Amino acid sequence: MIAQAHSATLVGIDAVPIDVEVDLQGGQPMFIMVGLPDKAVEESKERVRTAMRNSELDFPYSKIVCNLAPGDIRKEGPALDLPIAAAILAANGVVPLDELRDTVMLGELSLDGNLRTIDGAVSVALMCVEKGFKRLILPLQNAPEAAVAPGLEVYGLTTLLELAHLLNGAGVVSPYRLEIRDEDRLPDYGVDFSDVKGQRHAVRALEIAAAGGHNVLMVGPPGSGKTMLARRMPTILPPLTVEESIEVTRIYSASGNKGGREGLIWERPFRSPHHTTSYAAVVGGGKNPKPGEVTLAHYGVLFMDEMPEFDRQVLEALRQPLEDGVVTVARVQATLEFPAECILIGAMNPCPCGFKGYPEANCVGSPATCGRYAMRISGPLLDRIDLHIHVPRLKPEELLSMQEGESSAPIRERVCRARALQAARLGNARVNARMTPREIREMIGLSDECRTFMKTIAAKLNLSARVFDRVLKVARTIADLAGCEQVEKTHLAEAVQYRERTEL
To answer: For residue 345, what is the domain's CATH number?
Structure first.
């Protein structure tokens, strides 16, 4: 007798449907699995057999052939345990075959029949809606995140025996209902801009970056507060929308980085990879491509401290995500695209010792050494960073001051108002940093005075076409923060100052 159950496997961060077919035959008892399974899937045979017996469910004493279709997609991980067990139960007459239709199942089985959590529950739930499945059965811990899919019945179970009862109509498990509370949508990051003393110029630049989605490079001596400023950036970004939260959760769930958190992720991602992190870990890749740090920072912040110390190949690979908001990972088997719409914040010293051009200490590096250090970040990459700011060390009186800086809440309110203007202008919740050249021409009309000003500046600073457009984008964001409909000369002047880089 042949039974078929429906399941899914992950390819990148997307789920693709898998059919689990089980045929019970006479002859010597054995368990044969085909369909390009990896080692974890191959070991499902022993987990399923033991879990069924320990759950007091009859395991057939016969030859079992299990096919995972389509056969040209490699199946990974232990999440196929549950559909394999369900197909065996149906083929053995323990549960009705009809109950497996329009139902997708995933779950790892422990030897006592309990269900363990899986990766990629959100991706699977969205796939179910797209493919027209009516019901999704998976471990209880994964139900909160999977329940975001509209029109899908999501059942969270704890044991294999519960599955048998549910399929036989004897279960008391009800579909999981998702509740999104307002207090969850504004998480506590544990840090605040009120902790920052001084550095008003840097705080202003980060406010502009948050409002328009612009990238930032901070240059300053050691101990000037660059890391402290960067870590507070998520606190002034707008709260994630439901759609953005689903996308962030999908990435973290598929990559196995949820860290035990249940339900949707409402925190803006903040990723700070060490400068020794490999190319694949930052950009994404591997034999079976997985998201890298730039994708894990989607809708959040990617902070690269000691930026010149990163491998040159890693830095140059950031060009595509900074420009397009996606990362393309090409392999022989397939080419995958990962979302990577994040704000890059880079931090660096002015020289290897950190004190070139600053009175705090004498620079001990030679001009050649300092030049090589500065050249580790290429010109094309610097062109893609909109705001270049210098962060000096605080003076003793600033360190001893008891006056707090402006807190994150009012800054975030201004950022939200500016982003609302951009969403109304551009649509689809886009920000100024993602404006196309045509949109720049159509939506940033300059007066004759502003045109003359920009002509002079472009000649004086030798601005490339890309940098010229980025100055206009930053000016548009400054105008949005000021609530101005038209970009004025003062907005352009402030935007230009963030492009003036002193020689490092």
So the answer is: 3.40.50.300
Domain that residue 52 falls in: 2-167
What is the pairing mode between strands 216-219 and 343-348? parallel
Asked if 300 and 225 sit in the same domain, the reply is yes
pTM score of the predicted model: 0.90
- Phi-psi category of residue 194: left, alpha or beta, with phi > 0 → left and psi -120 to 50 → alpha: alpha
The Cβ-side half-sphere exposure at 191, using a 13 Å CA radius, reads 14
The answer to whether residues 76 and 3 touch, using CB atoms and an 8 Å cutoff, is no
Long-range contacts of 325-330 (CB under 8 A, 24+ apart): 325/434, 327/283, 327/284, 327/292, 327/294, 327/295, 329/12, 329/283, 329/284, 329/285, 329/289
Same domain membership, residue 225 and residue 366: yes
Nearest to 72 by CA among 20, 18, 35, 33: 35
pLDDT tens-digit readout, 277-305: 999 999 988 777 889 999 999 999 999 99
Looking at the structure, tell me whether residues 23 and 108 fall in a common domain.
yes
Number of domains in the chain: 3
Question: 354: Cβ–Cβ under 8 A, 6 or more apart, which residues?
Answer: 221, 222
Dist. CA 499–CA 389, nearest whole Å: 8
**Is residue 289 assigned to a domain?**
yes
End-to-end CA distance of the chain: 75
Are residues 79 and 137 both part of a single domain?
yes
Q: Over the stretch 85-116, which tens digit does the pLDDT of each residue have?
A: 999 999 999 999 999 999 999 999 999 999 99
- Is 309 part of any domain? yes
Instruction: Evaluate whether 158 touches 172 at the Cβ level (below 8 Å).
Output: no
Check if the beta carbon of residue 106 is closer than 8 Å to that of residue 8: yes
Report the C-alpha gap between 218 and 434 in whole angstroms.
21
**CA-CA distance, 117 to 77, in Å (whole number)?**
12
d(CA 420, CA 414): 10
Same domain, 374 and 475: no
